[in-house]
Amino acid sequence: MNIRLCIVAFLLFILLPPSAWANQPMDDLKPSVEKVMFLLKSSTSQSAEKQDAIRNQVMQIIRETFDFNEISRRTIAVYWKDFSEKQKNEFTDIFAEFLGSSYYGKIRDSYSDGDIIYDSQEIVSENKALVKTRMPREAGDIPIYYRMMIKNGKWKVYDVIIEKISLVKNYRTQFRSILRKESPGDLIERLKKKVSEQKQKESHKEDQTSEGKGKPDIQ
Amino acid sequence: MMICCSFCGSAIAADEYDEEDDYLSDDVYLYEEESEDYLEPWNRLMFNFNDRLYFLVIKPVAEGYVYIAPVPFRICISNFFSNLSFPVRFSNSLLQGKGDGAAVELWRFLVNSTVGIFGFGNPAGNHLDLNKSDEDFGQTLGSYGIGDGAYVVWPILGPSTLRDTVGDCGDAFLRPTFYIEPLWASAGVWSFDRINSLSFSMGDYEALKDAAFEPYIAIKDGYLQLREKKIEE
After folding, report:
1. What is the pTM of this model?
2. Cα separation of A101 and A199, whole Å?
3. How many CB atoms lie within 10 A of CB A214?
């Protein structure tokens, strides 16, 4: 069995400012992706400060496109009530930072020149839709689906399904295993630690051309 | 709770939207009860072993292979091995009553073996738009209602379930490479196929680990989700 767990092929979408109150999800998505891809491609030949500025721009776009409140609630699930209001906000904020920067880094490093193919969009209920896309890769396209929800006239992503695997569900399973034994505060600390590790890795990567300098990991 | 329309035809959309909303209500306790990881100590041991094996052995070998073998060559190899697995996909499509899938597989095999020159090419996929009916015996058993059994991680082979392991053993008899003598040659060919497949997804494992808080759980959940979806389809 060949399991291609390409969980980090997370794509970024921007929402247009709500100019039309009856937007189709894909109409909101497409220009957004294009803008982000443009930004990412242009960032590779820039100075460090410029790269930072572009990164901030992209992160801003990510935050506007993904509904991190929904994502946070859905990944913490039954344990959400154990979080204080402050912890809820803190978690949402850091998780957004973590996800955004995970995928920013990955997309920037390894995105191939093929364009993302939009296959279809389906409105599946009053406020939910599914947009199907494909990312071309050498040995076969990777199907990437976006679950979107409309709130206040804006379509936002609340789950990404890569190669049939739902990210929200995957994180929910991980967080459940953690929150069984640790407190919300502990989880938030872990998140913070992960984010700072990410930042270190990113600054190392900028000096290197090849990626994937992993080390064996002891559980 | 939203009743989603089941006319949309997407297996993902149809049933999971309702399930997803359940997570938001406080009194749903462990709605998504995971099946117990009965073999967890063994699994975690194997997970660590495989992790080390990957970084110390498999990854360097794969990187070396990528260095010397250009993409078109590797794609040809991938096509070749994929073509050889026709009996597996064909039989299991039939066993699941998927006549269309079986027919597609047959056409793919015939076209790719002839026009595609012994399977190194993939004209069926590239030009005739005939896509794999990607079935295996584990999925067949799953479609008959047989549950996972237990999640198990095998050394080298990676994650599986009891059912899928039985499935893989069954499928092995349908693979021509299984019958190569001596045993080490057969294993060598198998390894070559795996390294070749891996060569297209270098970096994915590392990225996955970076994005995970509990890599063991992330992989377990990813594997189980994937199998569940494949069986549903």
Report:
1. 0.82
2. 8
3. 16
> Which of A77, A172, A219 is nearest residue B44 as measured by Cβ atoms?
A219
Beta-carbon count within 10 A of B11 CB: 12
Instruction: Quickly list H helices, chain A.
Output: 25-43, 48-65, 68-76, 85-110, 167-179, 184-205
- Residue B67 and residue B71: Cα distance in Å, rounded? 10
Quick check: A92 and A68 in contact, CB under 8 A?
yes
**Omega cis (within 30) before B41:** no
Structure tokens at A203: 């600054």
Q: Identify the residue whose tokens are 């294009």.
A: A34
Structure tokens at A49: 């400060």
Q: Are B207 and A159 an interchain contact pair (Cβ–Cβ within 8 Å)?
A: no
Residue B33 has pLDDT above 50, yes or no: yes
Which among A8, A130, A218 is the top mutation candidate for probing chain B, defined by the most B β-carbons within 10 Å of its own β-carbon?
A8
> Which residues touch A132 (CB under 8 Å, ≥6 apart)?
A118, A119, A120, A121, A122, A143, A144, A145
- For B161, list phi and psi in degrees, rounded to 5: -130, 170
Alpha-carbon distance of B134 to B226, in angstroms, equals: 13
pLDDT digits (tens, 9 = 90+) for A32-80: 777 887 887 777 777 778 878 888 888 888 888 899 999 999 999 889 9
